[in-house]
Amino acid sequence: MSVTTATPRMMQSLSAKHRNRLMRIAREVNIPVGTRLFKEGGRADHFWIIRSGTVALDMYVPGRRAPVIERLGFGELVGWSWLFPPHAWQLGAEATTPVRAYEFDATAVRAMCEDDPELGKAVGQWVGRVLAHRLTAARTRLLDLYAPYGSGGLR
């Protein structure tokens, strides 16, 4: 498994040593279109890096269809809630096309991070950057959907 091919964008902020350690426990999976990877509030026990295909992140809104917050594709991390207690998904995710991905067992990765503080710090910073981006995307999307004048005035 070639790490540079497997993880072109999201994991590039990790050192080659850390990427290689994580990729040793990765499992290749195929996810059919329409498959729900997780739903908001569920137990966050895995995460994925997309090799091909598209995953839509959505959010439960009472009385409405779940709006898509962001679409993820090649090389992107699907799931960050696995890293932070209480390890419950903050969003939902569904494959909108057939997806090939690397799947990671969150418990195993957390154990690796506890055993190697340098790895733990690097993974925490990597996932933190993803989290910051996702929060901004969610805020912008929800303003576009529900604010009277959208997000055009955000600065």
Overall pLDDT confidence: 87
What does the overall shape look like? globular
Please describe the biggest sheet, giving its number of strands, its sense, and whether it closes into a barrel. 4 strands, antiparallel
Alpha-beta classification: alpha+beta
Residue share in helix: 25-40%
Strand content: 15-25%
Terminal Cα separation, in Å? 42 Å
**Adjacency order of strands in the biggest sheet:** 1-8-3-6
Number of helix segments? 4
Instruction: Report Rg.
Output: 16 Å
The total strand number stands at 8
Low-confidence stretches at least 5 residues in length (pLDDT < 50)?
1-8
Following the backbone from N to C, one meets helices and strands in this order, namely: HHEEEEEEEEHH
